[in-house]
């Protein structure tokens, strides 16, 4: 029967998978009260047509929010993503006609100072620029937890040269490495989701209320991409299509089956407004 074993072994492993049941168990593995709520803030906007975010949709105007999140516990906060300074905003090219909100970025900087921990969905400038380019980097670094893949990309292939940390800066950061999933804090699970960048991860949060949120970063740029299960169509982004398809498909299935779970897309401005209106996300930082 050796041939049978060989046939089984040759069966290709799925390119990517995640299991919500497993993630829920991990979310309860670290004892302690779960978070109370999640706040969102918009530090800038990008103006791009919808077809870039959702392949095949019309090239109609679409506002992309550039956001950061604050997970609030009774006794402290965890930041997810760090905003960005004006110079990083301008890097994204269309800076002159794209709004930047300095007072919102100042709120992010305050929130980073106050936070107990800082994590990022991925290592792109609009998500990590507020940390790397912060005047308070030395104070922020020891409470920042990056993945090995995130730090490696920042050092070896940063999106822009200004994001590359010096060896001294890199040594101050905390670095973890995990396969699949990682229990980060009570109610918080990191889910490795490489593709958009090598270090991309999705952050699952289970609140004390029982509500669940999935901070999906840039796996998609608009919730319509999840609903329609369609990839981005942005030639300047190099994403392994099989990985992205598997991740998008998972989000799509969760969206249609998990009524208690809110998928949060970093750059979806329409969704940000809707979630604030529905009380799913708090408007601004505390
Ligand atoms: Zn982004």
Q: Counting H and I runs of at least 4 residues, what is the number of helices?
A: 12
The CATH architecture term is 4-Layer Sandwich
Main sheet? Answer: 5 strands, mixed
Radius of gyration: 19 Å
CATH topology assignment: Metallo-beta-lactamase, Chain A
What fraction of the residues are assigned to beta strands by DSSP? 15-25%
Low-confidence stretches: none
Which ligands are bound?
A: zinc ion
Sum up the overall morphology in one term: globular
CATH superfamily label = Ribonuclease Z/Hydroxyacylglutathione hydrolase-like
Widest beta sheet: strand line-up:
4-3-2-1-12
What number of structural domains do the residues give? Answer: 1
Walk me through what this model shows:
The protein has 286 residues and is of the alpha/beta class. It has a single domain, classed as Ribonuclease Z/Hydroxyacylglutathione hydrolase-like (Metallo-beta-lactamase, Chain A, 4-Layer Sandwich). Helices cover 35% and strands 23% of the residues. The termini are far apart. 42% of the residues are buried. It binds zinc ion. Zinc ion binds next to α6.
